[in-house]
Amino acid sequence: MAEKTVYIETYGCQMNFADSEVVGSILGNAGYTVSDTIGEADFVLINTCAIRDNAEQRIRKRVRELKASQSRRPQLRIGILGCMAERLQSQLMVEEENVSFVVGPDSYRKLPEILQQVAKGRKMAETELSTTETYADIEPVRMGGNGISAYISIMRGCQNYCAYCVVPYTRGRERSRDPETIVAEAKALYHNGYKEVTLLGQNVNSYNFNGVGFPELMAMVAEVSPRMRVRFATSHPKDLSDSLLQTMAAHDNICRCVHLPVQSGSNRMLKLMNRHYTAEWYLDRIDAIKRYVPDCSITTDVIAGFCTETEEDHQATLEMFRRVRYDYAYMFKFSMRPDTYAAKHLQDDIPDEIKTRRLEEIIALQGQIALENNRLEIGKEYEVLVEGPSHRSDAQYFGRNSQNKVLVFDRHDVQPGQYVKVRVTDCTAATLKGELIQ
Ligand code: SAH
Ligand code: SF4
Ligand code: F3S
């Protein structure tokens, strides 16, 4: 029988992209061809996100669109992986009748067996969560990447139970991966020409494997090579330690960028969200970052219109943005998720128009701050890791500096994967423009 072909489509956060690479590896080792186009696929695997209702709606729309491909090719089977699979389990196959299998994030090792059954016409659901699975021994296949920058998943799950968040229910208990396997993966990437790794977890600061904590792990990975950059995401403000900041300060190749989701600037909201810090604590952590790593950029996530949010709470969020002056922010309208503390105990009582207006005010303020921050960069020189041709023009390349800011510059004869020096000459709120200086 000819080899069967699998096509994987990924939605959601970086962890989902990292998981799709694990899935690609598991299926590749089982003799499947992993294709980067849907064309000849026998199986389409959609790795899904459940974080907000609109994420789920988008995926459902995509699943329904695939009916057209299925009517042309009746052997085509569709499976749902990831967080939506875990949240909805076999009910998803009832609601979306063209879906043949549903596989949660801790069951990917079973995929080869599941696909065999599904090919025979069965419907399958595997959604058991594990307390130990980390896929530590699986070498991910790097799909759709640039050959320069790769993700390494260092832990799975989350048990912080922020009141709005579905992740603890879709990803299960927190567990850390053996540091030896993480360092081995980083070394293998470096030897294959990669220049940057991003260590991923929902709350990397609580990484702990037999006493090895996150600062020690960061140092181990940073020491693989001074020419390989190390990034990490995401840090929970309650757990961001001075010791991590000291480790960053001691290693030039640990990137000068901390993503520190604030969620709200109001202490009343932070308490209701179960975030375990106050605005004052958060600002103290910002001061600590600036003290240890003065050239660090700071980015965040924020939610507008969480349950009971008043105008005063919203003003406190805007004030937080003015105080911290983030370089970038992911800004969201609150979306009530089933099973969460909020769904069980609170009301989604902020009308959509008000959520939208508050979100727009945050977006407008942040746009202005990002532009002002970028203007201060004009004249500065940065080491930039070249990633590829700019999206706007082939005559230009783009890359990032250690602060994770995108710089665009004239091409000359540089290659992707090379480090170059660039002087900033101009900017927008989103990009720095510059010229090569060596
Ligand atoms: N583990 C990370 C974030 C994971 S989800 C952390 O704790 O920071 C990414 C972001 O989605 C969150 O930081 C939050 O801002 C947003 N988010 C999560 N649940 C949401 C919801 N129900 N509605 C709107 N935004 C949400
Ligand atoms: Fe969700 Fe909170 Fe865990 Fe982040 S820390 S994944 S927001 S529960
Ligand atoms: Fe979405 Fe799951 Fe990530 S809900 S944000 S894909 S952990």
Task: Please report the number of helical segments.
Answer: 15
Shape: globular
Number of DSSP-assigned strands: 21
> Unreliable stretches, pLDDT < 50, 5 or more residues?
none
Rg from Cα: 22 Å
Helix content: 25-40%
What is the mean pLDDT?
A: 96
The N- to C-terminal Cα distance equals: 55 Å
CATH class of the largest domain: Alpha Beta
What structural category arises from helix and sheet content?
A: alpha/beta
Classified in CATH, the superfamily of the largest domain is: Methylthiotransferase, N-terminal domain
Beta content comes to 15-25%
Q: What small molecules accompany the polymer chains?
A: S-adenosyl-L-homocysteine, iron/sulfur cluster, FE3-S4 cluster
Largest sheet: 6 strands, parallel
Please tell me the total number of domains.
Answer: 4
What is the topology, as strand order, of the major beta sheet? 2-1-3-4-5-6
CATH architecture of the largest domain: 3-Layer(aba) Sandwich
